[in-house]
Inverse folding.
């Protein structure tokens, strides 16, 4: 069913999607109930576009009423001309961490707003300027009493040009700066390159962040490379990434009031091999992915090495998608992780389009972890209402 709002003498179109999801989770000890209503609204006019989305989750153990209500909301406005695009976004997120459903909770709030201007110069060069402000609050509460509260706010600005060298080659760069009330000032730089043909795509991206908080410094840099190829069999993907995060901070030991320098060095490496969208049968699609990871950590406290470790992870994931009819789709995903920690997870879902306005989704998930020696069942039902404009 299409709903169209007409503003004479021009036309505006809007669409609304609303859904409600209910789930039950059992981790081998406790059963948790969860309900999540959400909405997604969009309005298109000749002058601007507006998108608004929000969701709220109510979670509680079934044996007693101890609810947590994390929620999030986001609004986006977009003004477009022939060569310029001006956008504004506002996002508010509220989370509650209530491990084991005790009386003590960690409540976090954040507000972020960003204004961006994108301008095209000729057919090859695109400029993007953005500026933003954000506020963060973290509280530890016991019932109605606030035990501790930390607030921080800051602003940021950046410039990101893109250059289309040819039909196959595209360059992307970005530079930005942020400064926070807590004393953190940070510069970030990035450079990306993409080479794309009809069947092959090569990407290379690098990022470097240099930050300072008072007299302390921290550096982070990463490099990633990727390749994908479209074939008659499916889409082949390879991705390599390496990240080095060297941070320096202060920490107070035991009952001493004098902070000492704490330096943490983390080196991460990752390799991903994937084959997706394999059409095994006309109504059956298969995907497979292998991920290898390696993370090395060193911790130095007051110029003394107090700990180091290395974690290796191997993970394989298989997926099936069966479309019995244009209205019915069944998916099955299973993954297994081994080496240091073993983790098994299987997820099955069934989507049924009841009508052009209604659709339902049933989901069953099973997770088993050797590290925590626990397992979990998740059973969920989602019903969605769609009002789509033409």
């Amino acid at each position: 069913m299409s709903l169209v709002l007409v503003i004479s003498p021009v036309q505006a179109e809007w669409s609304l999607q609303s859904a409600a999801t209910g789930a039950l989770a059992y981790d081998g000890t406790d059963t948790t109930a969860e309900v999540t209503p959400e909405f997604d609204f969009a309005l298109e006019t000749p002058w601007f576009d507006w998108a608004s989305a929000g969701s709220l989750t109510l979670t509680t153990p079934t044996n007693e009423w101890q609810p947590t209500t994390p929620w999030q909301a986001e609004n986006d406005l977009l003004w477009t001309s022939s060569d310029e695009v001006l956008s504004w976004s506002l996002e508010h997120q509220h989370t509650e961490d209530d491990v084991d459903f005790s009386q003590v909770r960690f409540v976090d709030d954040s507000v972020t707003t960003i204004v961006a201007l994108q301008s095209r110069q000729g057919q090859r060069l695109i400029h993007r300027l953005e500026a933003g402000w954000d506020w963060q609050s973290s509280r530890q509460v016991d019932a109605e009493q606030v035990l501790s509260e930390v607030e921080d706010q800051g602003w940021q600005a950046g410039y990101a040009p893109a250059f289309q060298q040819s039909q196959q080659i595209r360059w992307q760069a970005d530079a930005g700066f942020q400064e926070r009330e807590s004393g953190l000032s940070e510069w970030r730089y990035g450079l990306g390159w993409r080479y794309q043909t009809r069947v092959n795509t090569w990407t290379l991206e690098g990022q470097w962040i240099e930050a300072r908080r008072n007299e302390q410094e921290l550096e982070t840099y990463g490099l990633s490379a990727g390749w994908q190829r479209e074939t008659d069999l499916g889409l082949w993907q390879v991705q390599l990434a390496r990240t080095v995060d060297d941070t320096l901070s202060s920490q107070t030991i035991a009952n001493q009031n004098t902070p000492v320098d704490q330096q943490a060095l983390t080196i991460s490496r990752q390799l991903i091999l994937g084959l997706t969208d394999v059409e095994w049968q006309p109504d059956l699609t298969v995907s497979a992915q292998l991920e290898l990871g390696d993370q090395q950590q060193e911790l130095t406290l007051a110029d003394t090495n107090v700990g180091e470790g290395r974690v290796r992870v191997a993970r394989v994931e298989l997926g099936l998608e069966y479309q019995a009819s244009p209205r019915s789709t069944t998916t099955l995903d299973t993954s297994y992780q081994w080496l240091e920690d073993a983790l098994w997870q299987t997820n099955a879902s069934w989507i049924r389009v009841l009508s052009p306005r209604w659709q339902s989704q049933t989901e069953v998930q099973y997770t088993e972890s050797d590290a925590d020696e626990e397992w979990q069942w998740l059973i969920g039902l989602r019903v969605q209402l769609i009002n789509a404009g033409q």
